[in-house]
Amino acid sequence: MLGFLVRRLGQGVLVLVLISLITFFLINLAPGGPSSASRFETTAEERIALNKQLGLDQPLVSRYGQWAGNLVQGDFGVTLNGGQPIGPILRQRLGNTAQLALSALLLSVVIGIPLGILTAMRRNSVLDHVTNTITTLGMSIPDFWTGIMAILLFSVVWKVLPSSGLYDASAGFSLVGWLRHMILPAGVLAFVMLPNLVRFTRSSLLEVLGMDYLRTARAKGVGERRVISKHALRNALVPIIAMVGLILPALLSGSVIIESVFGLPGMGRLAVDAALGRDYNTIMAVTLVAGAVVIVTNLLIDLTYSVVDPRIRHD
């Protein structure tokens, strides 16, 4: 197990280095820059002076080495369009995105896995057909459209839920206020993720239900509920857990759109603002943190396999 952890952590560090290299050189090769994004009427002389002030006139390799050296010391640098330290901004935005992503993931798992099990147990029933129709609809509709429709219905027409923010600033933070603000964005993000989880759970369980050892259990008089809960579900859980791990990167990318639609100050909006302002340092920080979150989560998912199925060992 220790060897597995060391090997996976080493691979994770290598992946992060490759991500940083590719991202750094791609964003610097793109046309424009912080000087062109700050003011359109900037003259060529002013742009040269600003690039020199920001250190952007140095060779790319030298700048990457300097950036990597600061990162090793835990310094993400400062924003190019304001000079603010990126570390505190990143911590605050990451916390907001984590609230959204974990709420959506919890909703997806709590609703998606039981619904997938029910549709597998009642294959070709009315519930199965209705669920297939809804999941197909969920996979076909863009998440920004779903978000806008949710705001129109629940915030504009019925006026029962707020359309933006994390809580009511005038009333201060409260759990009820946070829940009211989180229902719409987390619900929309979960609705986008839910179809894949329902369908994967259904197909995974159907595949296990057709195996010989379950027919033997039924022939011995074991009840259908016990067959599913004690035997089938345990074997079907491993690929379902893998699917949950694959959902996380989709949650992070989906949060970019959902945070923009619902006005949430998270990592997604920070990435969009940084890209529009050609803020190289912030783009690098957001990309690396998102990559690290995905790598750590996948490692935790792999470790969970051996807990669910003792036959799986990590050497």
Automatic annotation (TrEMBL):
Listed name of the protein: Peptide ABC transporter permease
Q: Where is the ABC transmembrane type-1 domain?
A: 94-301
Q: Which family is it part of?
A: Belongs to the binding-protein-dependent transport system permease family.
- Record CDD domains: TM_PBP2
* Signal peptide span: none
Q: Which organism is it from?
A: Deinococcus aerophilus
Entry's transmembrane regions: 12-30, 100-121, 133-158, 178-198, 236-262, 282-301
What compartments host this protein? Answer: Cell membrane
Recorded superkingdom: Bacteria
Tell me the membrane topology, using the record's own terms. Answer: Multi-pass membrane protein
Q: Is the keyword Cell membrane in the record?
A: yes
**Pfam families, per the entry:** BPD_transp_1 (PF00528), BPD_transp_1_N (PF19300)
